[in-house]
Predict the structure of Glycosyl transferase.
Amino acid sequence: MARICFLFNHDQLHQLAHSLPIALELAASGQHEVVLATGSEGLEQRLRELAGPALERMGLVRLDLRSGLSRLAAGALERIVPARKILLYRDNLDFFRGFDALVVSEKTSLLLKTRYGLDGLKIIHTRHGAGDRAIGFGKESARFDLVLVSGPKIARRLEAEAGVDPARIRIVGYPKFDLFAEHRIPNPFPDPSRPIVLYTPHPSPRLSSYYRMGPRVLAELAASERYNVIFAPHVMLFQRRYTVTIAPPAIERVPPIDPAVEACPHIVVDRGSPAATDMSYTNLADIYCGDVSSQIYEFLLRPRPCLHLNAHGVEWQGNPDYAHWQTGPVVGPEANIVEALDRAVATHPQYAARQQELFADTFSTGAQSAAIRAAAAVTSFMEEKPSSRTKPA
């Protein structure tokens, strides 16, 4: 019986659903000792809500900063960078040493190997989201001992671009769908007859439409009586006053939301509630409007009209980082957003087949749930003899 820790160490809730279903399935099998570790009270509370009675089969630990120096550094830097998340690894090395494997949905956990020398700890990556951005296929992916991916597209690009050994990749499907594919919420608008547009820009300043287009897009939609609008950007967009990204490198102030937009009865603004992470909006909306967010693929669970905002004049045709822009019209900063949305609706039939093709390449589906397939992959990996495993790059 292996000791396996599922780590949830982030500022927000959006990564939980990408690995929690696997933990639930592994715990239900009784083959391993499963422990959930969180980095904050908010994450722990959401885990309790999602896991419910199944939590009784697992351990639950909240990690904290243990040194005064770490707490001081986190307090000074947290408004700019996620210092606490990074320092949490250093302050809890003894905790991590107590496990055979660590399952994570992000990449900062690789510090345990690259900086702190925990080579005996197997780190399994579930990833989060299934989008096309280049950062998802960086060389650091090759450092994981096992990578669980949603579909052929992800496996193909990890092999070709990140140099991940195919023997360390398992195509398991999308665990988030196990939790939320059928999740529905009531229509929140006074006039439910209007089509609902979901505008969900990414936080990265050099990729997002929000910094250059967002305020005008929202103003035009507020002034129009054509659509209901859910403005639910990536949950990290409003996490800090300035957004700092490494890949691609950028730092930019996040434009505030006009109070008139927030007061508009046919616009819902969500800066990062659980509804922004549990497919509430991608399941409810009639039209998708975005840039590079991987939520486009969750929206395509049911093919519907899509509109893509090219705020940076990207030459996107033929670029795999923008494959999802093949699912609907692409417009730039000069576009009238209401007219562009009308065109996306009118031309949807010509994009529907491509939407289905891209969805099938992104998500492997089958008789078994993604969580069952992923849990089986983890168990098989843990049962392998160490000599038979390919050493990470």
Observations:
- The radius of gyration is 21 Å.
- The chain has a mean pLDDT of 94.
- The longest strand covers residues 3-8.
- The CA atoms of residues 215 and 257 lie 7 Å apart.
